C-alpha cells in the first residue's frame, strides 16, 4: 500500500551523528514523521544543554520538512527539566515551525550524575499537559536506555535484556501507566498519547491490569474511580506497530483495542527493513477498512496531515493507494532530505 504514514522514524543532528550518519531512502509514497533519535534531550542532564539541543533540533528538522512537506512531517523535541520552558519551546515548535506533535524519550535525566529520573506523572507537569491539550497535538512516548544506576542493578549481568529485546518496553510501560493512573487523562481529557512496539506489552495485559488496579487496595491512586486502563485506550491512547511486525500480535491488539487505536510504523533506522515492514503490513489478513485505518487514515486524522503544508488526501481507496505496489520503491533522491542515526538500539 503506497501512501502509508509512519511515525517512529529517527534522525540525528549532523554534528552528533558525525561519521556514523548515513543517507537512507524511504518507501515511495510514504509520509515519514521524523523525530530526534533517542534519548535526545531526555538524555542530557544539564538543563541548559538539553534546552539548547531541543531548539537546535526543532530548527533543523523544520527546515528539512519545509523542503518536502508532502513526504516529511516532524515531532518536536523538548527538554523536560522545566515544565514551563518545555511549554514555551513546544508552543514555538508547533505554532511557528509547524511540528505535528512532540516526541518524549521516556524520563528526563537529571542531577549531577544523570541518575535522577524525572517522570511526567508528577503534578508539576500539569502545565505541560494543559498546553498539549490546548495545542491539540499528539505526545509520542518512546523508550530509551536506563540510567547507569538502573543498568548496574538490573542489567549488568544480563546486558542483552536492557534495550529493545525487553528493557525498553518494561521501563516505558511503567511511565505510560503512571501517567494514566495519576489522573492526567481525567484532568486533561483532550490529551492524546501514542507509543510504539505494538503497545509496549500493555494491550496484552489489559485484563490483568484492570483486574488488579483495585481502588480499595490503592485508595491514593488518582485515576478516576469509574475508569479503567481499557477506557483510556478508547479516548486517549494509541499504539503503533513500530519494530513489531507480528501478524498474531497485530490481530491481538485489534481484538483488544480496535483498529481505530492502531497506526502503522516501522522504527527506522533501528529496524532497517522499510521494505520488510511495508510488505508485511500489505499482506496481513485485514479487512480493507482496517488496512486503510491502520496504514494511513488514523495517523492522517490524529496528526492533521490533511492540512497545509502537508495536504495529504484523506479517504483514498486501496486501488488508489496500490496495495502491494513496492516496485521501484526506493528513490535515491529522497535520501538527500535527511540524515538518520544508524547506531543499533
Automatic annotation (TrEMBL):
It comes from the Eukaryota. Residues 42-305 form the Amidohydrolase-related domain. Signal peptide: none annotated. One of its GO terms (biological process) is secondary metabolic process. One of its GO terms (molecular function) is carboxy-lyase activity. Keywords: Decarboxylase, Lyase. Pfam families: Amidohydro_2 (PF04909). One of its GO terms (cellular component) is cytosol. PANTHER family: 2-AMINO-3-CARBOXYLMUCONATE-6-SEMIALDEHYDE DECARBOXYLASE, AMIDOHYDROLASE FAMILY PROTEIN (AFU_ORTHOLOGUE AFUA_7G05840). Belongs to the metallo-dependent hydrolases superfamily. This is Amidohydrolase family protein.
Amino acid at each position: 500500500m503506497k501512501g502509508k504514514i509512519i511515525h517512529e522514524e529517527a534522525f540525528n543532528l549532523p554534528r552528533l551523528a558525525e561519521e556514523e550518519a548515513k543517507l537512507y531512502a524511504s518507501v515511495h509514497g510514504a509520509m515519514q514523521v521524523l523525530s530526534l533519535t533517542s534519548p535526545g534531550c531526555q538524555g542530557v542532564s544539564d538543563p541548559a544543554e538539553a534546552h539548547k539541543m531541543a531548539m537546535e533540533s526543532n530548527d533543523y528538522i523544520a527546515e528539512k520538512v519545509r523542503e518536502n512537506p508532502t513526504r516529511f512531517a516532524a515531532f518536536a523535541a523538548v527538554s523536560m527539566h522545566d515544565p514551563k520552558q518545555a511549554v514555551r519551546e513546544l508552543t514555538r515548535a508547533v505554532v511557528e515551525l509547524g511540528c505535528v506533535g512532540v516526541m518524549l524519550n521516556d524520563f528526563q535525566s537529571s542531577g549531577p550524575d544523570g541518575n535522577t529520573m524525572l517522570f511526567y506523572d508528577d503534578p508539576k507537569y500539569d502545565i505541560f499537559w494543559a498546553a498539549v491539550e490546548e495545542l491539540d497535538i499528539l505526545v509520542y512516548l518512546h523508550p530509551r536506555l536506563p540510567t547507569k544506576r538502573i543498568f548496574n542493578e538490573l542489567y549488568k549481568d544480563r546486558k542483552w535484556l536492557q534495550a529493545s529485546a525487553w528493557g525498553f518496553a518494561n521501563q516505558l510501560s511503567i511511565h505510560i501507566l503512571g501517567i494514566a493512573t495519576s489522573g492526567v487523562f481525567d484532568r486533561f481529557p483532550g490529551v492524546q498519547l501514542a507509543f510504539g512496539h505494538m503497545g509496549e506489552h500493555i494491550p496484552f495485559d489489559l485484563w490483568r491490569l484492570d483486574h488488579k488496579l483495585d481502588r480499595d487496595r490503592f485508595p491514593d491512586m488518582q485515576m478516576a474511580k469509574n475508569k479503567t486502563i481499557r477506557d483510556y485506550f478508547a479516548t486517549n491512547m494509541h499504539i503503533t506497530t513500530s519494530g513489531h511486525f507480528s501478524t498474531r500480535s497485530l490481530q491481538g491488539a485489534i481484538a483488544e483495542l480496535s483498529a481505530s487505536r492502531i497506526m502503522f510504523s516501522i522504527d527506522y533506522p533501528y529496524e532497517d527493513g522499510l521494505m520488510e515492514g511495508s510488505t508485511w503490513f500489505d499482506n496481513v489478513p485485514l479487512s480493507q477498512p482496517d488496512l486503510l485505518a491502520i496504514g494511513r487514515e488514523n495517523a492522517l486524522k490524529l496528526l492533521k496531515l490533511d492540512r497545509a503544508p502537508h495536504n495529504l488526501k484523506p479517504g483514498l481507496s486501496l486501488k488508489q493507494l496500490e496495495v502491494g505496489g513496492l516496485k521501484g520503491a526506493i528513490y535515491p533522491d529522497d535520501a538527500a532530505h535527511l540524515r538518520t542515526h544508524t547506531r543499533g538500539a
